[in-house]
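User: Round two. Same drill as before: sequence, then structure, for each protein.

Assistant: Same drill it is. First protein:
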Amino acid sequence: MLRAAAHSVKQPGGLTASLCARRSLQNRWFSATRVTCAETAFPSLDSFSDEENMLRESVKRFAEEVVAPKVREMDENETMDPEIVKGLFEQGLMGIETSSAHGGAESSFTSAIIAIEELAKVDPSVSVLCDVHNTLVNTIFRKYGTQVQQEEWLPQLAESKVGSFCLSEPASGSDAFALQTRARKDGDDWLISGSKMWITNSAEAEVFLIFANIDPSKGYKGITCFVATKEMGVQIAKKEQKLGIRASSTCALSLDDVRVPAKNVIGGEGLGYKIAIEILNEGRIGIAAQMLGLAQGAFAKAVPYTYQRVQFGQPVGMFQGMSFQIANAALSIESARLLTYNAARRKEEGRSFVKEAAMAKLAASRVAQEVSGAAIEWAGGVGFTRETGIEKYWRDSKIGAIYEGTSNIQLQTIAKFIQKEYS
């Protein structure tokens, strides 16, 4: 259609077709200008900055050389190796978005997503430790902390101390605002009493962001976020024994009149609900990246085996049935990747991303479980053993449909956006 503008056929009134076309184009909402790849302002979702590419290579090397040799041992012992945690700090991976003034790398949100993805390719347990610390704990201090709070806590979180996000309770999972933990004023301090469950990083953590209600009569508007430490009285009550991500600590916390100074309130009294909602939307992109990396890790371990294992005179991966399964898995992984990085870029650009984050987490968690399960079958009996590590990816994948918002919560979020748009 646009080629018609190049012809010079006479039109009524003496105007040529080319002139008519030029006048018509002036009234259009789009441009017919051909833009080369080098000129485009809209790069593909596979386009990353030099800094982001270097980070990916650095994290990949750390994961393969430092984390990989310890994965099975950590999984069997259900304990995170302290040297791994130390290495994360030394590599600058515990303060990715934190400003250089506070000891951080001052990188992009997408950089954090890249790090989470690359770590998950080798061990999702290490990945989630890095994820929660960066996308939840550090971000809360950066977005809602006062300058004094940032100066006190961010350097510690970037250099040596693991952080933990303490929201869930026995009676408040998906209904997070039904929490029963209370905080009451005592002079210039707050006394926090209650319990928390399913708290990631809690065994390694030294800094805890605890959500408690200071005025139950106000409902969720009484929820407030506090910074606490073990020295203030936070106690690890029980470490859960889990199906997957076993090296990642998941514990119950006991809070018995934990004394927290008033200066440790984050974001203001009664604003904890707002912090929790907003931060979990960002955190879901991190979980999507973890599940994406997990799926890729399982795929990368199983597929080469299918081209080495010969049955009936040819590699099993060459049979049409299996080759189509592998192709479909690759398609699913790429789809999850695009959803994840689209959500990350939208967040960076300051655009709405809540629906996109929900879509990314939901899709990536489904893909992780499907691909890791298929990977076991592709490797046959070998895949079912612990020796290859393939089965661990499948065990680790199940949590993706549960934490930081179940799959049904993600579907509900997506449905609300659709209803708002079309009803």
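Second protein:
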Amino acid sequence: MAVSTRRPGSMMVIANVSMFLALVVSGPIAVEAARAFFVFGDSLVDSGNNNYLVTTARADSPPYGIDFPSRRPTGRFSNGEAIGNEESPLPYLSPELRGRRLLNGANFASAGIGILNDTGFQFVNIIRMYQQLAYFQQYQQRVSRLIGIPRTQRLVRQSLVLITVGGNDFVNNYFLVPYSARSRQYSLPHYVRLLISEYKKILMRLHSLGVGRVLVTGAGPLGCAPAELARSSSSSGRCSAELQRAAALYDPQLTQMINALNRKIGKTVFIAANTNQMQIDFLTTPRRFGFITSKVACCGQGPYNGMGLCTVLSNLCRNRELYVFWDAFHPSEKANRIIVRHILTGTTKYMNPMNLSSALAL
């Protein structure tokens, strides 16, 4: 997610899944041949929009991007990915997103945002969900001037959408500080119901804007990030119980809401990715997946490398392939690959009602 006074954001949902999924849906820059790809959400999928904003929720300094071909930070909260970077949709605020490059899609995500508009208030200048959707409308108007309204509608209808949001509503809102405004206003079960209700409005708005296939990721095991382990020095490496309870309440209700929306629409538009189960697999048995640890971040400082930001002064591991976490909050490139494998070909243990490969074949 992003930087906060309590914790920069929730742990691993998908930091750069957008980059990996782009390999599946992208092709030559030609509207007839390519499937456009659109990304909405927070820092887990922000590909650099916040670079163009005056905000502390940014990843534009080394060692972020250390494993990109350029070895330079791009704005993604990740060590990077050498495969398919050129195919990943550009940030919507990038001046390079113009002309026929628009036909590949766009990334509207912004680090620090949540489902609720008051989430991430401390970051001030971020692109909240309502503005991301407004930008999507603006995008369609720009493309319509390029290729006409009918072809734009077809491009959007045949596209794939990824949306990853919700974790910040817990870590940068409800649990941001003891006795936060939202925690005084709502019990946790009631707060989760509020989030699901508001998220439903966002998804229905996306559908009304003409999209045909939307991949929705869950919150994941929020309490198992190195930041949480470092914060609770008495935890002995155990996940935060309060955040784990939040995720346990939120994820099943999100899947139920998505199934209900599909029934209402009469076809499968929304696909739920159980990122919680995907990540629990290698959090509990990291060596089975080739990791040496699922508790210590590759980049950071303090206990579990979970305190503060990842900077040039931080501890930095030599082999990112051996770590589940890149920084105190976000997964490593290798962890992302495992998640994406489940999204593409996973069983109903991970994907509901079907995996992405099956959905794209429809």
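Strands lie at 37-41, 105-107, 160-164, 214-217, 270-273, 299-300, 315-316, 351-352.

User: Perfect.
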